[in-house]
Amino acid sequence: MSPSTSPTPGPKIIQWILDTRPLWPIPQMEKSRDQVQELPNVASRAFSLITEEQKSSVLKYYHLRDAKMALASILLKNLVVAKYSGIPWKSITLQKSELGKPIYVPDKSKSPTSASIEFNVSHQAGIVSLIAAIGYEEKVEVGTDVVCVSERGTRDGEMVDRDGFFAWVDMHAEVFAASEVEFMQKGPISLDEFGIPGTIVAGGDKIEQCEKRSGSVKVKIMDGGREREEALECKRVIEVKFRRFYAMWCLRETYVKMTGEALLAPWLKELDISKVKAPAALPEQLDEESLKPGEVGKDFHIMFKGKEVTDVKMELSALGKGYMVGGAVRGRVGLEMGSWVELNLEKDIFEVAEGNL
């Protein structure tokens, strides 16, 4: 179903993506703040749909990319409420939970339906994601996170070349369980993560110990009943390890956001997510701007305070060459997520908003 058509009845999970990178282009200026202050003129149609308080929250940012994502986040939150509550766009008001998370509380005096709407948003490197649970009688919690593996690629690579990959992971160890840190540093890596057929029969430990991007490691591979030796560039090994790290980061952030807390939650080290393999982009995915869906990771093993978590469904999807987006839902057994749908600003947002002011 197109996001711009009338919503179908019944409980559902909504997963939307909005790419702000091509939206509201503003010429480079000497000061980043000047670009941000120009945004109300360039994005006047979008600004006409938000409150004065929301406008101020967008214009507080120093960098244009952050302001655009903040604007898109507001539009997506209003869109999901407008589409599924029946409330006119201009009448939408969101409240905050005890933990400061934006929430929608149905108001029967304004809405023709009292359908529950639980949502969560995330944004990174120009991409904004929204996941929502619509119309469930029981409580359903949702969370999402977006990561861009290449956004800090140059800086990450330089730090790894200087200090080593293990030390780089240790910088972030306070937000991971000890077993997760060990897995990211030294966990086995299969050949399919390099896009190479076959199975490593010798030299896998060299890949696990690889810490810097210079040089190569030799491994023996069994493929089709034949054994061969191949040299894997350490640069490629580190790229695979970076992708696994950001996959782990995205999953943890997705889970934590589902709870309404942040990565400063006191129980972080008691959350342990395993059986993680970073979803791969499509082999032909070379366009940095594309968000074409790739692999989807599922069936992660989640432990919390020593007990298995069975009421949370998590997925991690590759988008384009460098992005991954996570989704989490907690509620009754059998809840399922679908595919992430990329929205069109004109068709899917403006037409809905302006047709229901």
From TrEMBL:
Enzyme class: transferase
InterPro entries: 4-PPantetheinyl_Trfase_dom_sf (IPR037143), AASDHPPT_N (IPR055066), P-Pant_transferase_sf (IPR050559)
4'-phosphopantetheinyl transferase N-terminal domain residues: 44-132
Molecular function terms, GO-annotated: holo-[acyl-carrier-protein] synthase activity; magnesium ion binding
GO cellular component: cytosol
Record SUPFAM superfamilies: 4'-phosphopantetheinyl transferase
EC number: 2.7.8.7
Keyword vocabulary terms for this entry: Transferase
GO aspect biological process, one term: lysine biosynthetic process via aminoadipic acid
Pfam families: AASDHPPT_N (PF22624)
Name of the protein: holo-[acyl-carrier-protein] synthase
